[in-house]
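Quick note —
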Amino acid sequence: MKIIASSAASTLLLLSSGVFMRDQQRSGGVVGVASAFMSPQSSYAPLSYQRTPLTHLPSPSFDGSAANSQQSSPSSTCLNLAELSGGLSEAWNSYLDALEANPLLVKSITAGVILGAADLSGQAIQQATATTIDNDADTANSVDIARFLRFAFFGFILQAPWNHFYYQILDGALPPTEDPFTSTTFIKVMIDQFVQAPIFTVLIFGFLGVLEGKSLDNIKDQLDKDYKDTMIANWKLWVPATAVNIAFCPPILRVLFLNVVFFFWSIFLSLKLNKAEVEE
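Predicted structure written out below.
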């Protein structure tokens, strides 16, 4: 759980960096960043991105001498890093523009990719464990494509749409506050984790069970066996993650933050829901 918590914190830092780059272009300073994160009315209107000129950086020399070659190396490194930074900023802006133009579609595609990747990671862990126990090298080379597609489809068709509309309803009923540490934030976290999460977890078991071809009795049996442990694990991860999400993330980025944290949660779900395959 420490690894998952650390990863969630890294994710928040990444999202913060993306918003910082975008608001630097809009407001030119720290005020824009504070406004983006703290204002309940913050918006991300599409902006035309222009790459920052690199004329302020020293140009490398190519006269063939060893000394000049050594002097030019740091400049070349700076140029490469600046180009990389500009490319990442441009990609981030493009993603935000697409998110504003087609929010539900972009969130769904993002969730499908992330959850599909999470299942592949879960399969790799499962196969590595099975190989260690059984000493069967052939096990490590097999990928369950159907299982991967089930998780990707779950992310695309259920997880992202559910959270897209859920957060719209939640923020509509309890609008975001400028101060992240308020009773409103606390109430929203409690609603999310002790009303929404138990319901959505049942939907996860049922949805993936139906895609696997399980009967309703089999799905009920799995819920009876695994639901309690799943919810306890859910609260260990999602109570702090949801508090960070609701308190600090702009509404437009909440599902993205959730999707990235959901990557690690989906690995747990993938192993939990498919542990019978290993036992067999």
